[in-house]
Amino acid sequence: MKKASILMIIGPLFLLGLYVFPLWTIMLGAPQYPDPLGMNIHINGIRDVNEFDIQNIDGLNHYIGMKTLPKPEEMWEFSTFPIVIGIMIGLGVLVGILGYLKKVDFRWFLGWFVLMSVLGVLGMYDFNEWMVDYGTNLDPNAIMKLANPDGTPMSYKPPLFGYAKMLNFEVSSLPSTGAWMMFTGMMLTLVASYMGWKSKKISNVRKTKPLAAS
After folding, report:
1. CA dihedral 72, 76, 78, 83 (to 10 degrees)
2. Which of 47, 48, 59, 196 has the fewest Cβ atoms within 10 Å of its own Cβ atom?
3. Domain locations in the chain?
4. Strands of the sheet with 45-48, listed across from one edge
């Protein structure tokens, strides 16, 4: 159980990477931009991949009526997510320490993993909802008004995950370093849960053997 507990302590610490590295990266490439434009989505704001990328993206979006990219103070998520992540890191480390001291068992490890997974899914849902609004809630007085073949207004929502073609832009939306660090940390806690379960199972078998022999 001690090895499982140490792993449970280490796993949540990987989430500290979210305070340094971007969670997600969206890139836009087009013939007129030899160097693609990009934005890094951090848990506390949106930043350029290269200098002036956000300024250039906002300039392009202005023509088709899209909103400017939000500043940290304009979205509650950018102030709430860092707090939630901090609480989950602290909770995970505490559970690992209590496991090391044999105060809790592997079920607490698994409970942390499940809770973090639920929060991750909710975060992705919120991120997707923001992109839907960002790409479809357009200014009716925009300079350019483009429509689909059936006459409906064209959507400029970036893909949540993967690649898409938007006008003459190739758009990619993929996890970045912070997301992979979070994924690694969560997998370590899942392994810790399995190791704790296996340790308890072996311990129970050893306890029942003398009874069986008698």
Report:
1. 140
2. 59
3. 2-194
4. 45-48, 33-42, 24-30, 169-175, 162-166
Long-range contacts of 122-130 (CB under 8 A, 24+ apart): 123/81, 124/160, 126/77, 127/24, 127/41, 127/160, 128/160, 130/75, 130/77
| Threshold 0.70, pTM exceeds | yes
Residue 117 token pair: 């997974």
The pair phi, psi for residue 33, each rounded to 5°, is -125, 90
Per the CB < 8 A criterion, the answer to whether 89 and 96 are in contact is no
The H-or-E segment that residue 33 falls in is strand 33-42
Residue found under tokens 């200098």? 51
Inform me whether the pLDDT recorded for 213 exceeds 60. no
| Residue 63 binned pLDDT confidence (cut-offs 50, 70, 90) | confident
